[in-house]
Amino acid sequence: MQKMGENGAAKYNQRPTFTPMEVSVELSHGNQLQGLGKCYDDDGRLKRSGTFWTASAHIVTAVIGSGVLSLAWAIAQLGWVAGPVVMLLFSFVTYYTSTLLADCYRSGDPDTGKRNYNYMDAVHAYLGGLKVKLCGCIQYANLFGVAVGYTIAASISMMAIRRSNCFHEKGHKNPCHTSSNPYMIMFGVVEIFLSQIPDFDQIWWLSIVAAVMSFTYSSIGLALGIVQAIDNKGFKGSLTGISIGVISPTQKIWRSLQAFGDIAFAYSFSLVLIEIQDTIKSPPPSEAKVMKKASLLSIIVTTLFYMLCGCMGYAAFGDKAPGNLLTGFGFYNPYWLLDIANAAIVVHLVGAYQVFSQPLFAFIEKWALKTWPDATFISKEIAVPLTPTKRYKLSLFRLVWRSAFVVLTTVISMLLPFFNDVVGLLGALGFWPLTVYFPVEMYIVQKRIPRWSTRWVCLQMLSSACLVITVAAVIGSVAGIVTDLKVYRPFKTSY
């Protein structure tokens, strides 16, 4: 059954599969497959071409997302002491567990062991049983949720461009209300087209563009925060964050918990780490070594940006830091620079949507092909000429299913357009199970760490502490969403 599933995935990816034995036999006869060994990896798939830099671009695209824009608000809830400390702790935990997860890409030998093509394959290889289904449900539900969150964030940035120009023309006192629905639909239409890119390793160029855009808007947010702090002639904020009195004690608790979720979401990339690692070319060096270096560089760079953007945003606005630094209109001028920053956010989210959605696309299509291998609608591809020498293989199933997926995420986004609360909930739900629990459990099995040994106890303590944080962040984010729903009218509320 497993072999059938892998062959189905290969067929879907237009990657003809040969076993290493078949390749060696054909080469020994000197037939038409002469030289095939140079074109295929040890698992019989087309050679992967990913490098340290492309892996880093994928990670940066996944990590430096819209979450960076909520960090000033998150630090405002926690204060100058707890805010940066929590951010550093999340970065350390994310990097450490990503190194554990990177070692799980191959079962056994890190250079020649059996490849695990995705997160679920790795869990199946090391843990098996019910945990595989549990992992799949959590991972793919989170990927779906991220697609919803990114649709919301993109529409907010597009609205911000419209409102920024309106404020410039009519003054800051004009409400300049606008609906997010048309912008979500525009974003969805673009994603319908891009979702037809067949495979994860074919979107490397989109990840590089998105990574450049993420640095662009993060840098603009940082620069505006510095300028605002200079204008204020000092840093705003306090050691403990927004004080009780300005908000109620209950609100202080809920907001602080939600801030944990926002920071967790800002470091969320473990759910696509194995898929990114599967794009890296074969050893030497091993894919795990390349992935660990890419993770280290990416997390150092993103943490530096996060600290600067979050802290400078808090320094500029103090307790009044907006939920979204570039769209909450803490800044009004220069309006054209805000427009550039928000346009960069939209372009970045276009790419990030695909980085998170492609693993889900691949899973559903692999499952469908395995379940109905003789269905023409699922397996048939139509060659569409793009140029005199290039053809695009159009799959009707891929066209229909992926388009339906984008439409569904768009409709849900229109129903729940709450940026901060949705971001916090997504970050909380995915952090412990995907970033901590499964990597720790697989590492314990892989290294055969004895139960109740010092290392085993330390790993379990780390996992337990992160579980407590996750539960608290979920409670805070749900409370925020409930509060928003009291005054929200679906498809009618404008900003």
From TrEMBL:
Localization annotation: Cell membrane
Gene Ontology biological-process annotations: amino acid transmembrane transport
Recorded GO CC terms: membrane; plasma membrane
Predominant localisation class: membrane
Domain Amino acid transporter transmembrane residues, every copy: 49-482
Transmembrane helix is among the record's keywords: yes
Record keywords, A-Z: Amino-acid transport, Cell membrane, Membrane, Symport, Transmembrane, Transmembrane helix, Transport
Domain of life where this protein originates: Eukaryota
InterPro entries: AA_transpt_TM (IPR013057)
Pfam families with a match to the protein in the record: Aa_trans (PF01490)
Transmembrane segments: 52-71, 78-97, 140-161, 203-227, 296-315, 335-356, 399-419, 425-445, 457-482
Single GO molecular function: symporter activity
Family: Belongs to the amino acid/polyamine transporter 2 family. Amino acid/auxin permease (AAAP) (TC 2.A.18.2) subfamily.
Protein name: (wild Malaysian banana) hypothetical protein
Native source species: Musa acuminata subsp. malaccensis
